[in-house]
Amino acid sequence: MKWIVVILVVSMALMALPIYAAEAFLVPMYTPQPAFPVELVKARYAGKVRAQLVIKSDGSVHEAKAIESGHPLMTSSVEQTLRQWRYKPWIGTVGAPPFTSITVPVIFGSHGYRRFNTEVSVGLGDIRCGYLNHEVQSVRQDSPDESLSKVDVFWYTGQVLFSSHVAHRHTEHERKALLEQLSDSIPMIVSHCEHNPDHRYGDYLPASIKAVLVGTAESGFTVGLTQEAR
Questions:
Q1: Where is each TonB C-terminal domain found (predicted)?
Q2: d(CA 226, CA 222)
Q3: What's the predicted TM-score (pTM) here?
């Protein structure tokens, strides 16, 4: 029954968008979570890693490489773990490429430095509101004239919407519309997260953007949808 609710939520979100150019083909099957390095836990060191994955049509990860990292130990944990990830093979799927690439953010210490804990968040949708609040506060303090769209979490989301993997399924016009929708929703998301730091960023994204994240193999976001449906 829980899965039926999840499917209905995603299906309703998809209906809000124009017809896709192609069906989603990247389906996570095995996505273990990176471990928080013991040395950094002892030092109460929070941080993040952004990893780029190149995935083959047989579902295996061809390459997992950190493109941004807060510490070498975090880099090692993420790269070693994400290389083990597996997806449902799409060999023979009409129109699907032999390789695809996605970017996965991993947050060590889900609420940032102000409220250290050892929770590890994987994927955009799984990011805690407490961590987003930490980034919003940093931008407001360091660059008060800067648009909140420059906050890393929002910028990462925009990058996903214009990634090659999403481009395979959506026209440029559709992706621009999603980006505008994200921009318009930022004040609402920030307000909700300020009042609900233990909730997840994905809880407050527009339904159409949630559907895109599910289609980009956001394993953490899929879990978030399941928990929301409970």
A1: 21-117
A2: 6
A3: 0.79
